[in-house]
Design a protein that fits this description.
A three-stranded antiparallel β-sheet has the order 1-2-3, covered by helices on one side. It is mainly alpha-helical. The chain has two domains: about 5-55, no CATH class; about 65-155, no CATH class. It is built from seven helices and three strands. The chain is globular and about 55 Å long.
Protein backbone atom coordinates (compact mmCIF):
# COMPACT_ATOMS: atom_id res chain seq x y z
CA UNK A 1 0.00 0.00 0.00
CA UNK A 2 1.37 3.45 -0.84
CA UNK A 3 0.41 5.30 2.30
CA UNK A 4 2.85 6.40 4.92
CA UNK A 5 1.87 8.50 7.92
CA UNK A 6 4.03 10.42 10.33
CA UNK A 7 2.83 12.62 13.16
CA UNK A 8 5.21 15.06 14.81
CA UNK A 9 4.07 15.93 18.33
CA UNK A 10 0.49 16.16 17.14
CA UNK A 11 1.23 19.07 14.82
CA UNK A 12 1.07 17.64 11.32
CA UNK A 13 0.03 14.60 9.41
CA UNK A 14 1.71 13.50 6.19
CA UNK A 15 0.15 10.83 4.02
CA UNK A 16 1.16 9.66 0.56
CA UNK A 17 -1.93 9.52 -1.65
CA UNK A 18 -2.70 8.59 -5.22
CA UNK A 19 -4.74 11.28 -6.89
CA UNK A 20 -4.56 9.84 -10.41
CA UNK A 21 -7.66 7.61 -10.30
CA UNK A 22 -11.32 8.26 -9.61
CA UNK A 23 -11.94 4.70 -8.50
CA UNK A 24 -11.66 3.91 -4.77
CA UNK A 25 -9.55 0.86 -5.61
CA UNK A 26 -7.08 3.11 -7.44
CA UNK A 27 -6.49 4.92 -4.15
CA UNK A 28 -5.16 1.73 -2.59
CA UNK A 29 -2.31 1.18 -5.02
CA UNK A 30 0.35 3.27 -6.73
CA UNK A 31 -0.11 4.42 -10.32
CA UNK A 32 1.85 1.41 -11.65
CA UNK A 33 -0.27 -0.97 -9.49
CA UNK A 34 2.57 -1.81 -7.10
CA UNK A 35 1.73 -1.88 -3.40
CA UNK A 36 4.63 0.18 -2.11
CA UNK A 37 7.50 -2.26 -2.72
CA UNK A 38 10.10 0.22 -3.92
CA UNK A 39 13.40 -0.90 -5.34
CA UNK A 40 15.24 1.68 -3.26
CA UNK A 41 14.55 4.78 -1.17
CA UNK A 42 14.96 7.18 -4.11
CA UNK A 43 12.10 5.42 -5.96
CA UNK A 44 9.83 5.93 -2.93
CA UNK A 45 10.56 9.67 -2.83
CA UNK A 46 9.87 10.04 -6.55
CA UNK A 47 6.58 8.17 -6.47
CA UNK A 48 4.83 9.57 -3.40
CA UNK A 49 2.93 12.84 -3.15
CA UNK A 50 2.85 14.17 0.39
CA UNK A 51 0.05 16.27 1.80
CA UNK A 52 0.74 18.17 5.02
CA UNK A 53 -2.13 19.22 7.26
CA UNK A 54 -1.13 21.63 10.03
CA UNK A 55 -3.14 22.44 13.11
CA UNK A 56 -3.35 25.91 14.64
CA UNK A 57 -1.55 26.16 17.98
CA UNK A 58 -3.00 26.10 20.56
CA UNK A 59 -6.71 26.14 19.72
CA UNK A 60 -6.73 22.97 17.60
CA UNK A 61 -4.63 20.97 20.06
CA UNK A 62 -5.76 18.93 23.03
CA UNK A 63 -5.18 20.32 26.51
CA UNK A 64 -3.28 17.17 27.44
CA UNK A 65 -0.80 17.82 24.60
CA UNK A 66 -0.45 21.52 25.43
CA UNK A 67 0.27 20.72 29.08
CA UNK A 68 2.74 18.02 28.07
CA UNK A 69 4.43 20.70 25.98
CA UNK A 70 4.53 23.14 28.89
CA UNK A 71 6.15 20.49 31.07
CA UNK A 72 8.65 19.47 28.37
CA UNK A 73 9.65 23.08 27.76
CA UNK A 74 10.02 23.71 31.50
CA UNK A 75 12.24 20.63 31.83
CA UNK A 76 14.34 21.64 28.82
CA UNK A 77 14.79 25.16 30.19
CA UNK A 78 16.03 23.67 33.47
CA UNK A 79 18.70 21.93 31.39
CA UNK A 80 19.69 25.23 29.77
CA UNK A 81 17.68 25.10 26.55
CA UNK A 82 16.11 28.14 24.94
CA UNK A 83 12.29 28.22 25.05
CA UNK A 84 12.00 28.68 21.29
CA UNK A 85 14.14 25.61 20.60
CA UNK A 86 12.26 23.44 23.09
CA UNK A 87 8.93 24.64 21.65
CA UNK A 88 10.11 23.71 18.15
CA UNK A 89 10.97 20.21 19.32
CA UNK A 90 7.65 19.66 21.11
CA UNK A 91 5.39 21.34 18.54
CA UNK A 92 7.23 20.53 15.32
CA UNK A 93 6.35 22.85 12.46
CA UNK A 94 4.51 25.38 14.64
CA UNK A 95 6.12 28.83 14.87
CA UNK A 96 6.97 30.00 18.39
CA UNK A 97 5.34 33.29 19.34
CA UNK A 98 6.50 34.45 22.75
CA UNK A 99 3.37 36.36 23.76
CA UNK A 100 1.00 33.59 22.62
CA UNK A 101 2.99 30.94 24.47
CA UNK A 102 3.19 33.03 27.65
CA UNK A 103 -0.51 33.98 27.52
CA UNK A 104 -1.55 30.34 27.34
CA UNK A 105 0.96 29.21 29.95
CA UNK A 106 -0.38 31.93 32.27
CA UNK A 107 -3.96 30.82 31.51
CA UNK A 108 -3.05 27.26 32.55
CA UNK A 109 -1.16 28.35 35.66
CA UNK A 110 -4.04 30.55 36.85
CA UNK A 111 -6.82 28.00 36.21
CA UNK A 112 -8.34 26.20 39.17
CA UNK A 113 -7.22 22.65 39.88
CA UNK A 114 -10.70 21.23 39.13
CA UNK A 115 -10.64 22.98 35.72
CA UNK A 116 -7.20 21.52 34.99
CA UNK A 117 -8.31 18.06 36.11
CA UNK A 118 -11.41 18.23 33.90
CA UNK A 119 -9.39 19.28 30.82
CA UNK A 120 -6.82 16.52 31.33
CA UNK A 121 -9.45 13.87 32.08
CA UNK A 122 -11.16 14.65 28.76
CA UNK A 123 -8.04 13.39 27.00
CA UNK A 124 -8.09 13.52 23.22
CA UNK A 125 -11.85 13.89 22.90
CA UNK A 126 -13.69 16.99 21.63
CA UNK A 127 -14.17 18.05 25.27
CA UNK A 128 -10.38 17.90 25.72
CA UNK A 129 -9.58 20.51 23.08
CA UNK A 130 -7.63 23.52 24.32
CA UNK A 131 -10.31 25.77 22.81
CA UNK A 132 -12.84 24.22 25.24
CA UNK A 133 -10.44 24.86 28.12
CA UNK A 134 -9.99 28.46 26.93
CA UNK A 135 -13.75 29.05 26.82
CA UNK A 136 -14.15 27.82 30.38
CA UNK A 137 -11.05 29.63 31.70
CA UNK A 138 -10.64 33.19 30.48
CA UNK A 139 -7.12 34.50 30.23
CA UNK A 140 -6.02 36.42 33.32
CA UNK A 141 -5.84 40.14 32.71
CA UNK A 142 -7.68 39.71 29.37
CA UNK A 143 -10.04 42.60 30.10
CA UNK A 144 -7.14 44.88 31.09
CA UNK A 145 -5.15 43.85 28.02
CA UNK A 146 -8.13 44.54 25.73
CA UNK A 147 -8.72 47.93 27.37
CA UNK A 148 -5.07 48.90 26.84
CA UNK A 149 -5.32 47.88 23.20
CA UNK A 150 -8.48 49.99 22.74
CA UNK A 151 -6.69 52.96 24.34
CA UNK A 152 -3.67 52.59 22.02
CA UNK A 153 -5.92 52.31 18.99
CA UNK A 154 -7.91 55.39 20.05
CA UNK A 155 -4.70 57.37 20.60
CA UNK A 156 -3.26 56.43 17.22
CA UNK A 157 -6.60 57.25 15.58
CA UNK A 158 -6.68 60.71 17.17
CA UNK A 159 -3.01 61.31 16.18
CA UNK A 160 -3.82 60.44 12.58
CA UNK A 161 -6.86 62.72 12.64
CA UNK A 162 -4.80 65.58 14.09
CA UNK A 163 -2.12 65.27 11.41
CA UNK A 164 -4.66 65.61 8.57
Amino acid sequence: MASAASIGAGSSVKRAINVDGDDEEDQLYSADNRDGDYEDASDANEQSDEVTVSKIWPTEFYAIDIVEGFEFIHDMMALGSIIEDAFGIQFEGIPYVKTTYNDHLRRWMNASQPAKDKALAAGRSPAGLWSKFMAANPAPYAARKAAKKRMRNAESQSERSASL
